[in-house]
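yo

u said u wanted the structure for the complex thing, so here. seqs first:
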Amino acid sequence: AQKVTQAQTEISVVEKEDVTLDCVYETRDTTYYLFWYKQPPSGELVFLIRRNSFDEQNEISGRYSWNFQKSTSSFNFTITASQVVDSAVYFCALSEAVSTQGGSEKLVFGKGTKLTVNP
Amino acid sequence: GAVVSQHPSRVICKSGTSVKIECRSLDFQATTMFWYRQFPKQSLMLMATSNEGSKATYEQGVEKDKFLINHASLTLSTLTVTSAHPEDSSFYICSARDSSVAGSYNSPLHFGNGTRLTVT
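structre next:
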């Protein structure tokens, strides 16, 4: 069975600090996708990144960076120079790679990490 | 980018009534949409997969007669909570995938803003 663990329930930092959100996953699939979503207080889910299991190259997008390590089944997310607007709940998610149109892509979410960035 | 609109954003209803939630893909077509449920301070759990023109696929433990899903067009899926009870109070959020993207069945999901349902 697939499982995503975000061990950090809540993190509080001061603005401009770097912060890393941990994500550890379990799956028996050899092909899968990993995601990070941001959920601000307003409730919507904002897509941040999707990474397939064959691409272990780390990615950087502005202040955001992701470290995918299959050896440790981890897909950690780092925010550099955090800002107050980064305050939100961040979800890591895992899905199998669907091979047919209309197949159910069951996104398994972690419990989320609530990040609070204080001014 | 792809936008998914969900309506209403909040609804309060009395126990025993039915509530319909709409999920629309505004600038793309979606043959598949997904309905999730999120309890306070909890994670999101997939309820069902909505397929345009066919029956929805429900996850284990989700009552299909209680949570009616209709995906009548390529841009609209609806979730109706029938005979709602206080335990149905939750945050319901839909997501959709752009069917026009090559290999779209593995394209990223875009989520709506969610609907907070309160049953009194």
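Chain B has a mean pLDDT of 89. The interface with chain A takes residues 9, 31-32, 34, 36, 42-46, 49, 51, 54, 57, 59, 91, 93, 95, 97, 104-106, 108-114, 116 of chain B (CB under 8 Å).
cya
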